[in-house]
Amino acid sequence: MYQLFGSKDEMLAASLERRPPGYEAGLSPGPGEAATPRERILYVFERLARASAEPGYHGCPYLAALVELKDPGHAASRVARDAKERLKEAFRAQAELGGARDSGLLARQLMLVFDGASARSGAGVESLDDGLATSTATTLLDAAGVG
């Protein structure tokens, strides 16, 4: 492996860099699955609930990397932070399209719900199969005026 990577840090960063297309595609609705901005946001939380019920689910790999590494300058931390920022930006863009009063704030709130739900379900502390994360996101969308 060290013929391909200079260190285990570089190898970890590269493995995280390869995840985004598949991971992010799994959170994005396909054609006809979610038509409105509200539906597209809620789709992410519905997918999270389904993923958390899978055997071997351990939470968001990017959040796990950020928590474990604790070094914002680490190459893998930068990759993970970029992935989390893309999700937040997707939430912000959909919130704006949906008429949110403050799309930036709503995106941050949705990230807290997503990351908290992912971490708690990944640790086996919380089950999301009852719709807890989705209903929490729905409450935030309602409060922000996203129709």
Describe the structure.
- This protein is an all-alpha fold.
- Helices cover 68% and strands 0% of the residues.
- It is built from seven helices and no strands.
- InterPro entries: Tet_transcr_reg_TetR-rel_C_sf (IPR036271).
Average of the residue pLDDT scores: 86
Order of helices and strands: HHHHHHH
Helix fraction by DSSP (H/I, runs of at least 4): 55-70%
General form: globular
Distance between the termini: 50 Å
User: What is the second-level CATH architecture?
Assistant: Orthogonal Bundle
Briefly, what is this?
The chain is mostly helical and 147 residues long.
Key terms for this structure?
mainly alpha; 147 residues; Tetracycline Repressor, domain 2
Fold topology:
Blueprint lengths: L7 H11 L1 H8 L9 H16 L8 H9 L5 H23 L5 H20 L9 H13 L3
